[in-house]
Amino acid sequence: METVAMHIANGIVNAQVSAVFLVIAVIALAVCVTRGRADLDDRLAPMAGLVAAFIFAVQMLNFQVLPGVSGHLLGGTLAVMLVGPWVGALCVSTVLIIQCLLFADGGLTALGLNITNMAVLGTAAGYVLVAGLLRVLPKTPTGLAVTGFIAAVIGVVVASQGFVLQYWLGGTTDLSLPTISATMAGVHVLIGIGEGLITATTVATVARVRPDLVYALRRFRTRAAAPAPAATSVVGGAA
Predict the structure, then answer these.
(1) Which among 10, 30, 1, 13 has a CA at the least distance from the CA of 163?
(2) Residue 175, CB half-sphere, CA atoms under 13 Å: how many?
(3) Which of 23-27, 57-61, 154-158 shows the lowest mean pLDDT across its residues?
(4) CB 43 within 8 A of CB 212
């Protein structure tokens, strides 16, 4: 079978299932646009551009997974921690669309499949894990690094299993579903470790230099104790 260097190529999943997931992807991105507007400000908007550019560069590293399918660093958890889940999903989606349209990286008919897996499922899993881990881990550069590593590894595996579901619904090749699931999970654990290291290093570095740019620190920070009221000074002596 011909090997295609990208996420899901044309023809791996049938047209009907591909169309359904395109609709799912469009609805999910519409929600992200609506919710993301509340997060965008003068600080987050340029940060989103930088995150998208970084993810684009990182996603150029492809790892062959199955015939017609390859895996690579996704960037969903990194985007969640730096710009939040809504804007983060839009960043990853933008990268996927550019890669597909300009570089033929991934099938055009599979664009909805790829966006659902990497921009929606991967980012959502990363967000849930980050939110949960930062409830118990310290909100320090080290705590963020540990959080980013764990969330990235699991988020990548979750995204890979999205393809397994899609293949189960409409796969067009004669491959064993348990074999696909195990292979995708096993290879993406390795890919996730690489992504986890990149995520941990990047987020920890930004947190040390500009903690105000890390969405995870602003969104999941511990509520500061209310400052004690200042003592009222008495001017003048006693009557």
Answers:
(1) 13
(2) 23
(3) 57-61
(4) yes
Q: Could you tell me if 65 and 180 are in contact, meaning their C-beta atoms sit under 8 angstroms apart?
A: no
Give the count of beta carbons closer than 10 Å to the beta carbon of residue 18: 23
**How far is residue 138 CA from its own chain's centroid?**
21
Separation CA 57–CA 52 (nearest Å) = 9
Residue of 153, 184, 228, 215 whose CA lies nearest to 63: 184
The rounded radius of gyration (Å) of the Cα atoms in the chain is 21
Give CA–CA dist 221/208, Å, rounded: 15
Q: Are 135 and 43 in contact (CB under 8 A)?
A: no
pLDDT tens readout for residues 23-43: 999 999 999 999 999 888 888
Contact between 212 and 218 under an 8 Å Cβ cutoff? The reply is yes
CB 183 within 8 A of CB 176: no
CB-based burial label for 169 (10 Å; 0-12, 13-18, 19+):
middle
Q: What is the DSSP letter of 118?
A: I
pLDDT in tens, 113-134: 999 999 999 999 999 999 999 9
Q: CB neighbours (10 Å) of residue 155? A: 33
